[in-house]
Amino acid sequence: MSTASNKKVVINKRVKGLPREALEKLSQTELIDKIVQLEAYNFQLRNLLQKKLTDQDKDNEEYALLFAKDTDATVSKDAKISSRQQQRKFDWSNAHRRHVLLKVSYFGWDYQGLACQEDSNDTIESHLFRALTRTCLIESRATSNYHRCGRTDKEVSAFCQVISIDLRSKHPPESQLDATSISSEIDYCGLLNRVLPKNIQCVAWMPLRSPVYSARFDCVARTYRYYFPKGDLDIPAMQEACNHLVRHADFRNFCKMDVHNGVTNYTRNLQSARVEACEETLTDSGYDMYYLEIQANAFLWHQIRCIMAVLILVGQKKEKPSVVTDLLDVEVNPCKPQYTPAIGLPLNLFRCDFRDKTTRSVTHPDAGDAGDDAMDTEPEVGGDSNAENPSKESDVTEWVYNEENLQKLIENTQCEWAQFSVKSTMIRNVLHQLENVLEDNFKPAEKVQAQVILLQDSVKPRQYQPLLERKRCESLENRIEHFVKKQRLIVK
Q1: Which of 76, 150, 195, 396 has its CA 20 to 30 A from that of 310?
Q2: How many CB atoms lie under 10 A from the CB of residue 181?
Q3: C-alpha dihedral sign at 297, 301, 305, 310
């Protein structure tokens, strides 16, 4: 048994500032010193943020207000913006709210990931919450009872990202689940899609019966797809390796460890893994497209990308399918071999499955997800409320779609497809010409099959070194010990 499984390791949540009671006991001089210190710190942060922001970020109204304090012209502009905001301020005192699930679809290749970041305004959540506040569907993120199903990294897309949130409603709580109230409710998707970027769109919403139902904790399965060209890969060998993945096991050798965030349990239940062709008709060439589909209760940071990196090595016949079993045996291989995860661009959160009844109580403390660096997190351990209360009504209802919104969404996605399809066809024609020139002039013994090189985000070595013979990363126990010494973690 490892140290991590014998002992509970938690984040050392140190208080970042003095509580109000302690501040009240400080003298006037001490308070002035603290204010001067904080202002200097804010100035330092503002300069750091300004260096990291893109031109697009700086054009955003929020950041314009932050940085436009140097000239009189910008001050007057800020005053006009502030005045306009005050005139449009929404009165939330009499507003009704309802708890819903929102299904959001996005292409992530132009964004810095899903989660909000301090040094970038170009994330999916940043755009989503600006749209939610601009349309007055929420007062603020802090009061919106927000949870996300899965945290996707930079460039990663999602067809079925689901969030749970409290939105403004036309109807009082006692009648919100009536059929007439649902049909006459605010057109949440249509309203949001008018202010969201075209590659971030709301697909549907679902009324919930429980006010604590969570898209994060009540999700029982997440399905991802990783798209890739066949290239020179041995697809049957990759599928054989996938069969070794399907188990309840410790995946520490198939992820990027984030021990510093308190993640010390790397056991996940991988429910299915398969490699499928994207099209029914295949050309039997390196240009045929496939996808790896993986379903699990939850995922670790970079888990699918690490799995895909190993599967590519198996497909290239550099590793045997049994290497998956070897890496999952953490007693024999407690330290991860050094290898680079596959790139994030082809990854897509394709489907999410939810339980009918939440396992959370109304008095449950909000765990939040701001500090969670894993792509997804393991659901809370709790009893099956369906088994305990079989007669109680389900917390979930039906997804509410709008025909006009769906037509508009299809139109936008078709335009996105047309743009990339035109580029793909042009490039494919150029490749066809180049391949013919190579064949006519040099008659090579083998065709060039380099379509997969893009996915391997690493330098190609002159001589391949097998995974199990490579240098190893630090063990989980050593990492825990390191962060315990730095007082980031506490072992109970």
Answers
A1: 150
A2: 17
A3: negative
**329 flagged as catalytic:** no
What contacts 24+ positions apart, CB below 8 Å, involve 282-288? 285/230, 286/229, 286/230, 286/231, 286/232, 286/447, 286/449, 286/451, 287/229, 287/230, 287/428, 287/451, 288/229, 288/230
Query: Based on C-alpha coordinates, what's the Rg of the chain?
Result: 26
Residue 48: strand, helix, or coil = helix
Q: What is the DSSP letter of 93?
A: T
Stretch (H or E) spanning 322: none
385 vs 400, higher pLDDT: 400
| Helix spans in 27-68 (H) | 28-52, 55-58, 61-67
Tens-digit pLDDT profile for residues 164-202: 999 999 999 999 999 999 999 999 999 999 999 999 999
Query: If phi over 0 gives left and psi between -120 and 50 gives alpha, with beta otherwise, what is residue 113?
Result: left
Domains and CATH numbers, the chain: 22-87 (no CATH), 96-218+355-360+367-382+392-401 (3.30.70.580)
d(CA 58, CA 75): 16
What confidence tens digit (pLDDT) does each residue in 393-425 have?
899 999 999 999 999 999 999 999 999 999 999
**Nearest residue to 100 via CA among 42, 144, 154, 34:** 144
Residue 277 and residue 290: Cα distance in Å, rounded? 4
What pairs with residue 276 in β-bridges?
291
